[in-house]
Amino acid sequence: MKLAVALLLSAVSICSSLAADPKPDAVVKNRNIDARVFLDDKIKADAALAADCLADGKKWLDKNAADAAASRKQDPQFFKDGGWDFERKYSIRSVVADRYVSVLRDDYMDTHGAHPNSDVNTVLWDKSENKRISIRPFFTETADNGPTMKAMVKAVIASLRIEKKKRDTSETATEEWFKGVAPSLLKIGAATLAPSTETGKSSGLTFHYPPYAVGPYAEGQYVAFVPWETLKPYLTPEGARIFGGARPKGDADEQ
Questions:
Q1: pLDDT (tens digit, 9 = 90+) per residue, 185-204?
Q2: Distances (CA, A) of 169 to 86, 215, 220, 253
Q3: Are the beta carbons of 135 and 205 closer than 8 angstroms?
Q4: pTM more than 0.85
């Protein structure tokens, strides 16, 4: 009797676990690849943002499915244990001034290499215009090698050095590892508006780096934080309007 009850409870637990697993919002599954895209509930609540993320995710699925098919054709021996495994998740990091939505895009890729890999990128969404934007509207100038971008890079590298010291990986806090962080919007890193202790504001910018970007694979991802006070001399009126407050204590731990 006890065994029967235990088996029943185990079955219920398994079913509950399966029921709790979120359903992908887009899937490509065949003998070459099992790839999935997930949107978090907050993104789904915004129809325009959800449509944009889903279109982006489907394009990513199709590209990797084509790459997997081509790879199998060229090197079928690498698929003897199954196809590639890919997953992409879109999640909201912050909403500032009830207008600017920062989205994190996290990727997982397993192509049967030495180890799986991951990537991170970001989307900045303007709810009032229903379109993607950059951080450019918040700054008076963002020219390559200009004063704003140079100040940002200096602050980013200072933040990365602090993070590496915390992780006891200071030996890789070198110019060689930081050379990819350049004073250019396209090369400084994927940015988000950091949340703030002040409602509706952003406490500054966070820059997100995947493995290999600013350190060896074993060190994983890094997030650099640049407080808005550092950026204050370079802000437009809109930038001055949306920045304020301090970074919440738990934010660094969550990144």
A1: 999 999 999 999 999 999 99
A2: 29, 9, 11, 17
A3: yes
A4: yes
Which H or E run includes 178?
Answer: helix 175-178
Distance CA 116, CA 86 (A): 10
| Phi and psi angles of residue 101, each rounded to the nearest 5 degrees, phi first | -110, 120
Q: How far is CA 233 from the centre of its chain?
A: 28
Between the CA of residue 200 and those of 50, 112, 232, 243, what are the distances in Å? 22, 44, 18, 9
Q: Are 64 and 27 in contact (CB under 8 A)?
A: no
Q: What type of residue sits at position 145? A: N
| Contact in structure between 205 and 226 (CB atoms under 8 Å) | yes
Q: Is 192 exposed, middle or buried (0-12, 13-18, 19+ CB in 10 A)?
A: buried
Distance separating alpha carbons of residues 10 and 162, to the nearest angstrom: 46
- Residue pLDDT, tens place only, 69-89: 999 999 999 899 899 999 999
The Cα 71–Cα 64 span in angstroms is: 10
